[in-house]
Amino acid sequence: MSIGTALRTALLTVVALAAGGCTDFDLQYLVDDFRVLAVRAVDGPEEFVDALVIFDPELMAQLDGLDDIEDLDELDISIEDLEDQVTFLVFDQTVDFLIEPLVVDPAHPTGPFRLRARACPWNETYRCDDYEGTDLVVDVVEGIEASRSEDLTFFFRPGIGFLNAAIADDPFRGFGGLYMLIDIDIEGPSGIIRAAKTVSVQPAGLDELFGLETPMQPNRNPRLCGVRATYGPAQAYDFTDDDVKRYVWRQKNNVSLCDNFESTDGYVRWEDPLYVVRGSDIDLRPLPPLDRGGQLRAEEERYYTLALPVDGDAPTLARQSERLEIDLYVTAGRLDDDRAFTRSVFGSQVTPEFTWSVPERTGFVTMWLVLRDNRGGVSWMERRMEVVRPSPRLSDEDLEESE
Fold first, then answer.
1. Does residue 309 fall inside a structural domain?
2. pTM of the predicted model, to two decimals?
3. How many helices (H) and strands (E) does the chain have?
4. Pairing between strand 226-231 and 302-307?
5. Is the separation of the CB atoms in 374 and 323 below 8 Å?
6. How does pLDDT run across 359-402, given as a tens digit for each residue?
7. Is residue 297 exposed (0-12), middle (13-18) or buried (19+ Cβ within 10 Å)?
C-alpha cells in the first residue's frame, strides 16, 4: 500500500501545539553588544514529509469537546493513552533546512566567530542540555569558523531515525506535527552566546485527504521589500526646500515581487549610498511586496490545522491566520518604540511605524528590521547609512549666481 493510500485510509486528528518559532531574543533596540538578533531557516521553517498518522476512533470519541491539551486533566485520559493510540511515522528522508543566524558584534565586526549546533526535540528551555547522552540529541555542526557573521550558515538534515525517535519521545507522539529545536552556540572575541531555532515537519497529503481545492503549503518566511522613510522638513541630506520627503530604502535581496517600488520617488537601491542628517527624526514603515502603504496583513499566511472531531465525527481542518510582529534594532540613536505588533492580543495594528531619532554624532550606523511570524518564519532587512551634517542651503543670491 502506498503512503498516500495509507494516509487516505487512516483517521487523523491533531491538537494545536503552542511551540514558539524563535527564542525570546533580546528586544533592547540599541545594539552595542555581541548578540543574535534572529535565526531563520532560509527556505522556510516547515517541511511536509511522507508520513502516516493513525488515530484510534474510540479515543477520538472521548476527546469530543476538548479545546486545549491542558483539558486532558479534566478527562479520564492519560498521556499514556495518547501514546498508545497515536503514531506519526516518517518515511521521507529528504528533510533539509538551511539555517542562518543574524549575529552582530559592533566591537568586533570581523570576528573571528565559531559556531556549534545540536538538535533535539522542542522543549521549553530552548536548550538540548537535558538530552545529553541520549539518541535524542544529534550534532548538526561541530564547528564553523568564519571572519564574517553572515558566513555562519549551516544545514540541518535530520534522518529518519532521529525523526522517529523524537516522535516516540514526544508525549503526544507527534500529535500536531513534530517540532525540533536547533541549539546554537556562537563564540567570538566578545564571548559566547546561545540562540535557538524551531523547525517542524508535518505530514503531507492532508489536502488530498480532506479534498481541499488549494494544496496546502509549508510555512514560508514573511517577506520584506524595504522600508519607507519619511523625513521631516529640512532633514534630508539634499533638501532645497521645507517639504516633507519620503524615500524607499530597498532591501538587499532582489525579489521580483518588490520591483513595483522602483518607480517610487526617492527610491534608494540597496547598493546606493544612504545618508541621514544628524539630530533629525525619521519615521520608518516596513514595506511588504506589492504594497506601497506598508500594510503587513498581506504577509499573514492562512494555514490549516487538524481540528478535534465533534460528536465522534471525522476530524476536520481549521483555517488559521498567522500573527506578525516587527522588531527594529540600531547601533546608534533612539527609537520611540522598540517593538510593534501587527496582530496580537494587544490589538490589531497592521501598519507599524517607528520614529528613529538620528544620533548627533556623524559616522556610520547600521539598522536591522526583523519581521517574524508566530510559526517560526523570519525575515530581516539590514541597512548601513552615514550620519552627516545638513547640506548647506542655497540662498536666493547663490541661486541667481548659479544660473
1. no
2. 0.80
3. 6, 23
4. unpaired
5. yes
6. 999 999 999 999 998 889 999 999 999 998 876 554 444 434 44
7. middle
